Amino acid sequence: MRLRFWIVNVGLLILGVLVGAWFLSPTSQDQVGAQDPLRGVMQARNLSLDDALAALRTYTPTGVPDEYIMFASGGHSGHVLVVGLPSMRILKVIAVFAPESWQGYAVGHRETEEILKAGGKEITWGDVHHPALSETQGDYDGQFLFVNDKANGRVAVIDLRDFKTKQIVKNPLIYSNHCSAFVTPNTEYIAEAPQYSMPYPVGTYAPLEQYKEKYRGPITFWKFDRTKGRIVPEQSFAIELPPYWHDLCDAGKRVSYGWAFCNSFNTEMAVPNILQMKMPLEATTARNEMDYLHVINWKAAEKLVQEGKYETVAGMKLIRLATAVQAGVLYLIPEPKSPHGVDVSPDGGYVVVAGKLDPHATVYSFQKIQEAIQKGLVEGKDPYGVPILKFDATKAAQVELGLGPLHTQFDDKGYAYTSLFLDSAVVKWSLGEPYFKGDKAWKVVDKVPVHYNIGHLTAVHGDTVRPRGKFLVALNKWSIDRFAPVGPLHPQNFQLIDISGEKMQRLYDLPIPIGEPHYAQIIERSLLKPFEVYPQVGFDPIKMAADPAHTVQPGKERIERKGNTVEVWMTAIRSTYTPDRIEVNQGDRVIIHLTNLERTRDATHGLAIAAYNVNLSVDPGENATVEFIADKPGVYPFYCTEFCSALHLEMAGYLLVKPRTQAMK
Ligand code: CUK
Ligand code: CUA
């Protein structure tokens, strides 16, 4: 009985397995698809198991928000990109240094045009390299984002309650910043140092023959007022640095709080002269075997300013080089030539410097740096009298990583990840104590190819005191053959990499078709608390408060004339402008205050007056003001640029500008 039971059952089991295997074996695609839809799709689309797993790890169903948000520099588009992870969906482009018509940024809108003008001359583009999220105790707090404009020496403040630019400051001392924006651990300051040293203040002339005497590379610490959400230039200060070309900085954290580390190149102080010297700058700036890491005690510098030990140059408090050296604010340490990238480990104990022309990462120990300072372990002074600490006395390790190491990020397990530009790869390696001990420390453990020419890389909270691991994005300069061809100007390529396991796994390629991103930062989405609509009708996004003086209440819409100024008090609600007819005389100054009365999410209205180069984007509850001189006579329709309702095409009106001759009558 029992034997028969077993024979029958085992027989049935074997039959079942055979039948199952027959069904699942690759026959026609339709058959497979019917039996196992996943395998059917994989076969139809020629996907490997790894491809399918990558898709499953990144796919995010509709209505499900991403877990992480990446703020990426938009390079020379002048904008910032907002991308959700792991889906890699682009969520927003934040206009910063260039007019942007979708957001109505600096195209007629009075306040944003003012922001963009900061710096005097009208400049309509910028070159964003490094976004920096505001930090509290060394970790992102989700309140503000700062970005630099490498081209013009500017820094911008973005408020993450509405993802809009609030302020742009122009540095009076420098052009072409690069070491920026970097925040200190409590966002006390936003650092900004120049790429290319020059005579200061901006506008000062000195021939290149006087480079060593007249050129300098001051680093500025912009004071940030969190409650106002603004940089306060009057409370900011700068420290004069030698005329090297400053690359990047990172603020010390935890044990190294109060310090900043900036690397530099062209310590040769070479100046361009290719026609006569027959030598390009790329050769003349790479002659020295070593360049200098700058070690800056910004807390001590702050104290010097409080004691009044500064001069004011073009409105900026400036600590002279000699004062800084005397007060122990500034030291140099040799670093392998032409470095790029400096990154402080999460515990603040190590400073990692990569060398474009050196296959190693050089790691300095903060503790050893402090000991070298205390014991006076110096190997001399640079031509400006800055003490140079001994390389061997400050070095913790040199780790051979591969060709063209640039930037480093960290995870939650004690590993560092460095981009290799020439190898087109990301390399994962272990830090030393307290993370790893003995022969487990300072070891390369994994390497993954990326496509191609990676610059920066960024991991989740990867440059903070508390990296989260999980994901890393490689910001690749070239995409070459990764996407369908779209002409000779190719997109850049963001590659999402899973770093949660021992081995890194590439998951997704995102083409970036705007500007050239440099750095990015990834924050947990739960830390961001943006408005869904503005908190009340009549909200001014620049003041981040209600603006009763310019709010137009429904029923109070009107047009007022005072001399040659015509002031229009207008409301917008689906699908009507009130008033919808504006009649002025040629030469009148026209001011339009527009209040969007909507309280519904996403009910944004536009206002396009194309003849006057105006387009507003007014979000629910927002107030906006437009001002222009009606110098062109004629009849100009205006309309709403956001498809806001079924009758959106009816949301329109006419601006009539009576010619001067007729207006006289
Ligand atoms: S930089 Cu572009 S790859 Cu301006 Cu931070 Cu290194
Ligand atoms: Cu309002 Cu379309």
Task: Describe the 3D structure.
The chain is of the alpha+beta class and 665 residues long. The protein has two domains: 68-527, Methylamine Dehydrogenase, Chain H (7 Propeller); 539-663, Immunoglobulin-like. The protein contains 13 helices and 44 strands. A six-stranded mixed β-sheet has the order 8-9-10-11-16-15. Helix 2 runs antiparallel to helix 3. It is globular and about 80 Å long. Bound molecules: [4Cu:2S] cluster (CUK) and dinuclear copper ion. The site of dinuclear copper ion has 8 residues, from loops.
Observed structural traits:
six-stranded mixed sheet, 44 strands, single chain, binds [4Cu:2S] cluster, binds dinuclear copper ion, Immunoglobulin-like, 13 helices, five-stranded mixed sheet, Methylamine Dehydrogenase, Chain H, alpha+beta, globular, 665 residues
Compact overview of the structure:
Helices cover 15% and strands 41% of the residues. It is α+β, with helices and mostly antiparallel strands and 665 residues long.
